[in-house]
Design brief:
CATH superfamily of the largest domain in chain B: TolB, C-terminal domain
Strand order of the largest sheet of chain B: 1-24-23-22
Helix content of chain A: 25-40%
Distance between the termini of chain B: 95 Å
Oligomer: heterodimer
Largest interface: A-B, 40 and 37 residues
CATH topology of the largest domain in chain B: Neuraminidase
Structural class of chain A: alpha+beta
Number of helices of chain A: 5
Shape of chain B: elongated
Number of strands of chain B: 24
Helix content of chain B: under 10%
Strand content of chain B: 35-45%
Radius of gyration of chain B: 29 Å
Chain lengths: ~190, ~350
């Protein structure tokens, strides 16, 4: 090649197609990212249970379309008395205040009892085991401070257009809430 | 097949249609019957069954109701009976004073919600208004407003002695001892390892205090389900009580929520959750039931399935008059029952 002569740059068909494909790919990727960004900031709504309306009817455990309900018991620790005799944990008239299965209320042993100091105990919910039956919620609500309550957990809820539980909710407690504020915590409503 | 048989006549068509309709109707009826017989949506397989605990053995009930009247103000909290057998009810922003038939005599108005009331032998009325005590003479004239003892103070029970006034402070989990001029003399029942005091456990604001004929204070340690006896200087002398939904114990997370004392030192205890009023000996041995859960229909429904209010708004309180009749204040039904021992 003679370096003194500048040859006009020519684009081959192969090069044109390759660059075109790259540009299209980038544009598509940009569009996808834009769409994702737009969806993540969109003010959509999700299902949630108003704890002030919930009547602990048991339907959350029975009617969710998932095999294990997306409704779980959650715990407002600020309201909890950390009671030795937790009425959400123990049967109404337990033989003894220990973790024996015959003394416990939860049908799936989803509540863990941890000693803190005399006479205080902490109660935590294992969401893998909780089926949202509200038996513990009823015990806490009836005899205690009502610190246990139900919420739809959005790490598993399918956010169906027509929630199967909402259709049968005895307390009409299901409602749509903003997706960026998906929980109705009891500390907020008291 | 005879070709004539394959021809669908109008008669055969009508007969076939009628048969099919009959079969459909029978099938529909069967399905309806099966649906009606099976548990409906109201049946809750996870229901918490406490019905068996709501019935009291009639042999244990040693009292009968002789009168009942409605409270005069909403949101009642505590009841006291004065030396003249007048009934004092702390409710809303006032203390209503009634005669023993429930007729309103007068009212002492306060600037904030009244949580508790006590009447001294000479007639002075002590009123707990959230974080401080206000005093009134027997005509309802204000005598003094004592200073608050602290930011977290939440007074829920009062007892007036000859020289001292004792205020149960649910917020700080202790009993405040005042002289009659309102000077704070000490704090009783606070956790103190050196004095072997385990401290009060108060999951919900129902701490109460009464001064017994033996000169000791009785304090309900609700989270431990027991009644504790302290000297006025704060030494723990003895305690009794155990957690149980059975009739001899105290049910729920925090009971008893109210105390009263008979002249011979026997204890009258009030519970929430399973609302019931019982009598225990001076040493804490269960003796009898004044009124069982079935007596307090509205109160027992508080926090129950398919209701929205929780256990925090329930409860009972009691006071004793000069004839040893027990006055029970129902915080939910907002009424007073006068119970007299059966002959």
């Amino acid at each position: 090649m003679n370096p003194g002569i500048s040859k006009p740059s020519s684009v081959t068909r192969r090069q044109f197609l390759r660059d075109g494909a790259r540009a299209a790919g980038l544009a598509g990727l940009g569009g996808l990212l834009g769409l994702v960004a737009e969806r993540s900031t969109a003010k959509g709504t999700v299902w949630q249970i108003d704890p002030q309306k919930c009547v602990r009817c048991g339907n959350c455990a029975l009617y969710c379309v998932l095999e294990q309900s997306a409704v779980k018991c959650v715990h407002a620790y600020a309201l909890c008395g950390y009671c030795q005799l937790c009425t959400g944990y123990f049967e109404p008239d337990p033989n003894d205040l220990n973790t024996g299965a015959e003394n416990c209320l939860c049908p799936t042993s989803a509540i863990k009892r941890t000693y803190i100091e005399d006479p205080y105990y902490e109660y935590t919910i294992d969401e893998q085991l909780c089926i949202g039956c509200a038996k513990c919620v009823e015990g806490c609500h009836r005899f205690g401070n009502g610190s246990l309550f139900l919420q739809v957990r959005h790490d598993r809820c399918l956010n169906c257009n027509e929630c199967a539980i909402a259709k049968v909710c005895a307390g009409d407690a299901f409602r749509r809430v903003p997706a960026d504020q998906p929980y109705l915590l009891k500390t907020d409503t008291f | 097949m005879n070709p004539a048989e394959s021809i669908l006549t109008r008669r055969r068509f009508l007969v076939g249609t009628a048969r099919a309709a009959g079969l459909l109707a029978a099938g529909g009826s069967t399905v309806s019957w099966l649906r009606a017989a099976s548990p409906g949506r109201d049946a809750n397989p996870f229901a918490l069954d406490v019905e068996r605990l709501q019935h009291t053995d009639p042999k244990l009930i040693h009292y009968e109701q002789v009168a009942r009247f409605q409270g005069c103000a909403p949101d009642p909290r505590r009841i006291a009976v004065g030396p003249d057998d007048r009934v004092y009810i702390a409710a809303a922003n006032a203390v209503t004073i009634l005669d023993c038939n429930g007729r309103l005599i007068s009212e002492i108005a306060c600037a904030a919600p009244v949580r508790c009331v006590a009447v001294a032998a000479e007639g002075t009325v002590y009123v707990g208004v959230k974080d401080h005590v206000e005093t009134f003479d027997r005509t309802g004239q204000r005598l003094a407003t004592w200073p608050s003892s602290g930011r977290r103070t939440w007074l829920t029970g009062l007892a007036a002695g000859e020289k001292d006034v004792f205020a149960a402070d649910s917020g700080n989990r202790c009993v405040l001892r005042y002289d009659k001029a309102g000077k704070l003399l000490g704090r009783i029942a606070e956790r103190n390892k050196d004095r072997h005091l385990p401290g009060l456990v108060v999951p919900s604001p129902y701490l109460d205090v009464k001064l017994a004929p033996d000169g000791l204070l009785r304090v309900n340690n609700t989270g431990r389900h027991r009644v504790e006896a302290y000297t006025v200087d704060g030494d723990l002398e003895f305690f009794w009580g155990r957690p149980s939904a059975g009739i001899e114990g105290f049910c729920g997370c925090c009971n008893p929520v109210g105390l009263a004392l008979l002249p011979d030192g026997r204890h009258v205890t009030c519970e929430k959750g399973l609302p019931r009023v019982k009598v225990y000996s001076p040493k804490g041995v269960f003796e009898s039931v004044v009124a069982g859960t079935e007596t307090f229909y509205e109160n027992a429904k508080t926090g129950a399935l398919k209701t929205r209010s929780d256990g925090l708004v329930g409860g009972l309180d009691a006071a004793v008059d000069s004839q040893q009749r027990i006055y029970i204040l129902d915080l939910v039904a907002n009424d007073v029952r006068i119970m007299q021992r059966k002959a």
